[in-house]
Amino acid sequence: MKTLFLYIVKRDDDPILAGLTAAEWLIRGAGEIPYRVIGCAEEVTPPQSDWLAVICSSTPLVTAGYLSDLTKECDRRGILGLEIGEGMLVRTAAYVEGFRPKRGATAPAARSIVDPGDLANAERTLYRRIAETSLQKGAIIPDVDSVRIDALSTVESGATIEPYAILRESRVESGARIGSFSTIERSYIKSGARVEHSVIKGSEIGRNTTVGPFAYIREKSVIGDKVRIGDFVEIKKSNLGEGVKASHLAYVGDATVGEGTNVGCGTVFANYDGKVKHATAVGKKVFLGANTNLVAPVTVGDGAYIAAATTVTKDVPAGAFVIGRVRAEEKSKK
């Protein structure tokens, strides 16, 4: 069996492609081939192997399988070596004698990145490679060409990623579904969760929870199991307990919301006084009616009922009924 040693020439300005630098993609692609990362081709020292490859990080699509196929092809055709982008694959004995190949490999993997178009094409190929790998491991991805799953993300077997979804540095458990046009960054989506046309950043979504459409879950939010986050709801740096419902048009910021609580349409957690962000604590099984304003810092006890259109500025005890409205008056137009 022919042996091969790989030198990876890393550039200082390595681009990031689908979550990894170009050199990191070459390291990942090397598989079981022994390799060494170097700063320039002059650092190559002929190894004790039949072949050596010097691959620059400007050619990030090269893999162990591709190099193996090239060595077999060169053996079959009696070729001493080939150029691969700015690098080369060459018989070690010939390299020692000063041979440098002039004939180039022509496959897409051998093309160097020299302009933004090349960069886009390479990244597109890598995204497809990641999606296909996830598919082989049991993920459900109807269109591998449209999704963008980066190399730092994990999609478990049985998870569904619909077309035009984007995943960056995230984990999606089995049974979860990421709907079309959703963006998930640095987040953990647990089994059975459904995300539809929404943005989630730096957060955790519980089991069998639904998010969206058009929801925005911001940094440091923890959403419990069986929660309903509906359309045009924004959650920021908040913990929502099991079974909480915020079905539409609400803002929850710097808050803790107990299990089984209802956050009515138009509810606002007013957390910012112009200088400082304040926290709000809402207990279990609280009813927050439509257009409720909670002016932080404030605490609402378990089982409290806040009537629609009420502004809460002081703590509410458990089980209390709170209503605060301007009474409607009917006046003549004359």
Task: Please provide a written account of the structure.
- This protein has 4 helices and 34 strands.
- With 334 residues, it is α/β, with parallel strands linked by helices.
- The chain has 3 domains: 4-111, no CATH class; 115-223, Hexapeptide repeat proteins (UDP N-Acetylglucosamine Acyltransferase, domain 1, 3 Solenoid); 238-334, Hexapeptide repeat proteins (UDP N-Acetylglucosamine Acyltransferase, domain 1, 3 Solenoid), CATH 2.160.10.10.
- The strands form 6 sheets. Strands 8, 10, 11, 13, 14, 16, 17, 19, 20, 22 and 24 form an 11-stranded parallel sheet that branches.
- Strand 6 and strand 7 (87-91) form a beta hairpin.
- It is elongated, with a radius of gyration of 29 Å.
- The chain starts with a strand and ends in a 12-residue tail after the last strand.
- 38% of the residues are buried.
Keywords:
UDP N-Acetylglucosamine Acyltransferase, domain 1; 334 residues; alpha/beta; 3 domains
Structure in a nutshell:
By secondary structure, the protein is an alpha/beta fold. The chain contains four helices and 34 strands.
CATH superfamily descriptor of the largest domain: Hexapeptide repeat proteins
Mean pLDDT rating? 95
For the record, give the distance between the C-alpha atoms at the N and C termini, rounded to a whole number. Answer: 101 Å
Radius of gyration, in angstroms, nearest whole number? 29 Å
CATH class of the largest domain equals Mainly Beta
Individual helix count? 4
Counting copies of identical and different chains, the oligomeric state is single chain
Q: Which overall shape is indicated by the principal axes computed on the Cα atoms?
A: elongated
CATH architecture of the largest domain: 3 Solenoid
CATH fold-level name of the largest domain: UDP N-Acetylglucosamine Acyltransferase, domain 1
Domain module count? 3
Which structural class is indicated by helix and strand composition? alpha/beta
Main β-sheet, in a few words? 11 strands, parallel
- Measured as a percent range, the helix fraction is 10-25%
Q: Tell me the fraction of residues in β-strands, as a range.
A: 25-35%
Low-confidence stretches: none
